[in-house]
Amino acid sequence: METVVGVEGNDEAKFDDVPVVKTSSPLSSPREIADPVVYKLVRVDRDGRLVPATDDEVMEVEDLLEDDKSERLPVAGAGQNVGYTSNDGCPPIKTQFNGSEGQSENPEVNAERSNAQLDTGVGMGKLDDEHEETIPSLETNSNESHIDQLGSGGECSSPLDGPIKSGSSISAICTSSKPDFSKLKGEICLDNLSVRELHETFKATFGRETSVKDKQWLRRRIAMGLANSCDVSTTTFVIKDNKVVTKGKEESFKSVDHTPAKVLSVGVNENCGGSPIGCNNQIENPQNVCGKILTDPSLEYDCSVEDLNTEQRAAKRVRKPTKRYIEELSEVESRDYSGKLISSVKSSGQGLSSPISRVRPVRDAQSDGRPVVTRQDSLGGSGVQVPYVCRVRRSRPRENFMALMKLQPSSMGMAANLVKKALGVSGAQPDNEVGNKVFKARSASGWIQKPLVAEPEKDKHYQEIKASELDKDVELKHLDSSGDYSDDLVTVPTAKGGMRRKHHRPWTLSEVVKLVEGVARYGAGRWSEIKRLSFASYSYRTSVDLKDKWRNLLRASFAQSPAEKGMQGSRKHASVPIPAPILLRVRELAEMQAQVPPNLSSSKFAVCSDRNVHETRLGYL
DNA sequence: GTTAGGG
DNA sequence: CCCTAAC
Predict the structure, then answer these.
(1) Beta bridge partners of A186
(2) Helix (H, G, I), strand (E, B) or coil at A149
(3) CA A501, C1' C2: Å apart?
(4) Which nucleotide shows the minimum CA-to-C1' distance to residue A540?
(5) CB 3.0 to 4.6 Å from A150: which of A46, A156, A418, A502, for a disulfide?
(6) Rounded distance, CA A423 to CA A393, Å?
(7) Is A548 (CB) below 7 Å from strand B?
(8) Which nucleotide is nearest to A502 (CA to C1')?
């Protein structure tokens, strides 16, 4: 509001201007003239200069000003808030954007404040920026521009309306009533209408009553409603065939829609239900901004449409989703859409391609790191977009994965196939723990799995695995958390046609040591014992694993010992090069326990095996 | 449920 | 690692 002083035009003016400015059509109306200081009506021209308002403009405004005198506080947004509190139905987006977290929760409470913020913001944006360009990187900036373009109308706000809560909660209200344009006939000049008439018009337009007495607000509101635009500069409408035709000022409409992909109204219509079907459209045309300017009035207050608009618009902004963002979204999304999504996209072939195509953002997100993305944007933009993104599972599928699939045979049929394909890929890449190539496969599988199971540990897997690979000894640190590996598996197609699950959790040095110790203590063959006592913390190592590993160790130790000289080189591709000492010990233990090939055990085991023998025996006996 | 051994 | 027979 202070901004008014500094500039000749006021916030309102700016607000209204924006669209106008672009088209350089006659400017709107500054409305704060209450201030004794002389306010001059001006129009901000394209280049930012102030141009004296034309007579028409002045006239246009004067009427508005009269109303304002009585109540000048409310600015553009104020009306909305009033409307909102009075069951207006549509949430003032601005509030959400400018307000801090809590605001969206209590629009009414914060309405005033947010208005102030908004106004200021809008004004500033107007003056400082070329609202023309929506800069993705600048959240605030883009918001402002949008506001400028779209206006403050609830309808228009949709694209910006991020928070699901408000959006959804409101959608219920919005959809409940429907505008009846049939009541509006002929030409309507809002400027000439009385409050009561305005009320009627309002009702006809929005299908609900309003208690707002503010003529200006009503006009603006109705104008916005009729034009489905925020350009309220036009107050005269012609109703034709139950459709609203703005009289003159076509440009303003265009101006609103300078976004590249404006013509999406069709897609939007289809999406009215708020169902994820919209995904297809989005995928095909991510730039889709959908029609803010729907010519079909019936849609104008359908908030579900707005939500979609929001999502799509947000989608348009190429904001890289953050990792967390994606994960959270996929979580939400999977909860909400998984069923529909799968079925709706199933045969389209999108199902397969989209998850992959989405991979990129996901990865980018990782680099981004900062989960700072505004909630609004993320929620709005992702709602429909992200379904395919889905959290990428960084670890192997759950063990019960297949079981789950069985539980949902209908929707999972395709899913299973997808997984198979994905797995096929990953199967070809044995060492895919970190590989990029496998990423697709993984994400795909993750995509399908995600909806099925809630996934608590997700993130840890990757890191831990990596850690264990890079630093085996560090593994010990993970003892406690090692349980997280439990579901880390990969299923690979089997010749028989069945799915074989293949875990690959490389044995770490510490594990090997434990195993050896266990064998020494309890004796080879008592795997379950060893597992219980020595591997209590390694839940993922089964007794069979121990046995297998021991077998391998034996093999390794005996294979190597004869040629101890070439030890280093010979162990070419042992994933976990086992230190000679350990192998030695293995051999000793083996010999001790009479598992040894006679020839090898013969000479060399007397040396230091004594102690071991004793230990072993003790433990064993 | 374990173990041993093959794949 | 998985699978399975044998215990």
Answers:
(1) A239
(2) helix
(3) 8
(4) C1
(5) A156
(6) 13
(7) yes
(8) C1
Instruction: Decide: CB of A528 under 7 A of nucleic strand B.
Output: yes
CA of A544 to C1' of C5 (A): 14
Token pair recorded at residue A437: 């190539």
For the record, the structure tokens of A589 come out as: 């233990």
C3 C1' closest Cα residue: A500
- A526-CA/B1-C1' distance, Å: 13
Give CA–CA dist A465/A297, Å, rounded. Answer: 56
Residue A244, φ and ψ in degrees, nearest 5:
-95, 130
- Name beta bridge partners: A43: A51
Report helix, strand or coil for A96. helix
**Coil/strand/helix, residue A431:** coil
Protein CA at A547 to nucleotide C1' at B4, angstroms: 9
Per-residue tokens: A349: 């072939």
Q: Which nucleotides of B are covered by protein (CB under 7 A)?
A: 1-7
Question: Which has the closest alpha carbon to A362: A336, A391, A341, A334?
Answer: A391
Element (H, E) at A338: helix A323-345
Phi first, then psi: what are they for A246, rounded to 5°?
-70, 140
Domains and CATH numbers, chain A: 3-70 (no CATH), 401-502 (no CATH), 509-620 (1.10.246.220)
A526 touches strand B (CB under 7 A): yes
Secondary structure percentages of chain A, helix, strand, coil, to 5: 65, 5, 30
A85-142 per-position pLDDT tens digit: 333 333 333 333 333 333 333 333 333 333 333 333 333 333 333 333 333 333 333 3
Distance in angstroms: CA A598, C1' B6: 23
Minimal CA–CA distance to A451: which of A398, A382, A376?
A: A398
| φ and ψ at residue A268, rounded to 5 degrees | -60, -45
Q: How many angstroms separate the CA atoms of A574 and A576, rounded?
A: 5
Number of other CB atoms surrounding residue A203 within 10 Å: 18
The answer to whether A502 CB sits below 7 Å from nucleic acid chain C is yes
The contacts of residue A13 (CB under 8 Å, 6+ apart) are A27, A28, A29, A30, A31, A41, A42, A43, A44
Looking at residue A189, its pLDDT comes to: 61
Residue A544 near residue A552, CB atoms below 8 Å: no
Length of chain A in terms of residues written: 621
End-to-end CA distance of chain A: 89
The reply to whether the CB atom of residue A469 sits less than 7 A from any atom in nucleic acid chain B is: no
How many angstroms separate the most distant Cα atoms in chain A?
113
Q: Strand C positions with any atom < 7 Å from protein CB?
A: 1-4
d(CA A610, CA A484): 39
Per residue in A407-442, pLDDT (tens digit) is: 333 333 333 333 333 333 333 333 333 333 333 333
| pLDDT reading at A213 higher than 70 | yes
To 10 degrees, what angle do helices A437-452 and A409-428 make?
A: 160
